[in-house]
Amino acid sequence: MPTVHVVQHPLVQHKLSLMRNKEASTSSFRRLLDELSMLMAYEVTRDMPMQEIEIETPLETMKTQVIDGKKLVFVSILRAGTGILDGMLSVVPGARVGHIGLYRDPKTLKAVEYYFKMPQAMQERDVIVVDPMLATGNSAIAAVERLKALRPKSIKFVCLLTCPEGLAAMGKAHPDVPIYTAAVDRELNDHGYILPGLGDAGDRMFGTK
Fold first, then answer.
1. pTM of the predicted model, to two decimals?
2. Of residues 46, 57, 108, 190, which has the active-site annotation?
3. Which of 31, 68, 86, 104 is catalytic?
4. Structural domains in the chain (count)
5. Is the CB of residue 104 less than 8 Å from the CB of residue 192?
6. Is 96 labeled as catalytic in the residue annotation?
7. CATH number of the structural domain spanning residue 127
8. Where are the strands (E) in 57-110, listed by range?
């Protein structure tokens, strides 16, 4: 199994509970996702390397530490990953952004790629892949496999929800990629949806269903 970090902060769990409610409107779902993503960004960037710079305070010159946001890449799995991406960029606005377009074949549940665009010099960068759901794991596995071909310094995966099946699949394919999530739900249903879950994150975010 991969290393799994379940973010138990009360604010994260509170906002996730509100998002699960089927009565939540599109606008409130989107707002909650943005807020929850900002909170999770604090956890996933906790061990980011720092560099020392010299600045002038109103009183004197001092040496202090900052993160190099330009070395960090948030990779959004389209389309639903966009919701997490926006919140994380609020916390680390200097990060670069990559996009992977994947859709799930409704018959096979396999991931089909239709778009791939990354920043240059990926071998010098730390990557955080974002997607609201780690369900079957097929999209996440395909995305990470493509990214590994670019040989980044590190890869992490961030999602709102996952399940034992998704963790098992991801662990088998990429045991070296740590996973950050707000909850590990009970199981998948026959259609590849997480139970109890929160429905289709993309449809709820964009009001398309």
1. 0.90
2. 108
3. 104
4. 1
5. yes
6. no
7. 3.40.50.2020
8. 61-67, 72-78, 96-104
